[in-house]
User: Fold this.
Amino acid sequence: MKEIKRLAGWIKQSDFTVVLTGAGMSTESGLPDFRSKSGWWKSYDPSALASVDAMKTNYPLFHEFYCMRIKALEECQPHRGHYILAEWEKKGLIHSIATQNVDGFHRAAGSVNVHELHGSLRSIRCLGCGMRGGVEDFINKAGCRSCGKNLRPEVVLFGEMLPADAWDSAINDIGKADLVIVIGTSLQVYPANQLPSLTKGRKVIINCEVPAGRSKFDMVVKGKAGDVLAELKRMV
Ligand code: NAD
Assistant:
């Protein structure tokens, strides 16, 4: 595909490349995304489950939804695309990854410079005193070991701010980037969807559907994340 060849050239030319990933980066690992045909939101209403309101007013339902998502992680692993990005960081081909994903797969594959914009399902804290808790305690509905209140995953819910350190680092990196590669996101979730427009460099989106807002990109590569990255790997 001629776009992939051109993108490989841009990656080689770039001195500072940042990758922004969304749920589509992990569908080939077996985790559903949110908005495509087989995504979570076809079966559930986000505001009823992944929101501050849901956590406060219907903790059992909130708990059930997140237990299901944490358990889904146990059966899945990073795929070749995650490993290719980790290898590119080691080789200096990319500087960092800003991810909307909460699955921890970029780090599990070996990427180090990862800004987890929406937190992680693998980290648990008390929603009363903020003390860290264990994933097992959350799944077993044990209360906080310090104050007894309910536990929650450290993910950003609808109605919450993004973690300042991850957000600031992502903005800083994207401000320096001469190439931003966006992979597997519908770019519908604010404020992460604003990040590509903050670069002065080239912007590319890799997605299996042509996303809304494609005109804001210098290149659209239609394809699956793992396939496109594997093809790129052969060329860079
Ligand atoms: P989204 O569901 O809104 O969009 C996913 C996009 O990826 C779609 O445009 C879809 O066409 C595309 N896609 C699906 N499979 C693909 C593939 N194999 N290759 C390339 N593109 C593919 O997801 P989003 O934009 O990331 O935003 C939704 C929110 O979902 C985020 O806040 C994120 O935290 C959360 N989320 C995370 C996970 C995860 O951690 N794996 C899973 C589901 C949702």
